[in-house]
Design a protein that fits this description.
Length: 165
């Protein structure tokens, strides 16, 4: 048994590989292609329809139900994040490495409502982490069990503001 770190498989970081292996996901052509989409654009979220269109454009003939199931499985094992936008459309994005996640969940993020790119607020300080912890503690005081806090700020990114007429 080798103690050397595993190399990335087809560009998939070892941490994501480990999450997939722990969930029993196989590395099929479809799985590799879907991961490739998200690894190529880590800052932006994709809807199911956008992911399907990109895969078809790359020459992969994938059934839409298979893609739905695969996106859900990747979100379930922590490889992708699944978030609903204001129109209640699911958007999937690459999950954070554990080194960038807080104890309560992912770092706060800013999501542009125009282009749907996401920007991590890595400068969030201790007061933000304390507030997230306090929210979970308040829920626990009411008898609820919170699992994570997902904090996002919506608006328009600098690039879209400059592009606006």
């Amino acid at each position: 048994m080798s103690l050397r770190p595993r190399p990335a498989l087809n560009g998939v970081p070892p941490e994501l590989q480990s999450r997939m292996e722990a969930a029993g996901l196989r590395r099929t052509l479809a799985t590799r292609a879907v991961l490739g989409l998200f690894l190529a654009r880590p800052a932006g979220g994709l809807t199911h329809a956008q992911a399907l269109a990109l895969l078809v454009a790359r020459g992969l003939d994938i059934n839409r139900v298979t893609l739905y199931r695969l996106l859900d499985r990747l979100a379930g094992c922590g490889v992708l994040l699944r978030q609903a936008d204001d129109a209640r459309t699911w958007r999937f994005s690459l999950a954070l490495p554990a080194s960038q996640a807080t104890e309560e969940g992912a770092l706060p993020r800013f999501e542009c409502d125009a282009c749907h790119r996401q920007f991590l607020l890595t400068e969030a300080g201790e007061s933000t982490r304390t507030a997230l912890h306090d929210l979970l503690a308040a829920l626990a005081g009411l008898g609820h069990r919170g699992q994570r806090v997902d904090l996002s700020i919506h608006g328009t990114c600098a690039g879209c503001v400059e592009a606006a007429p």
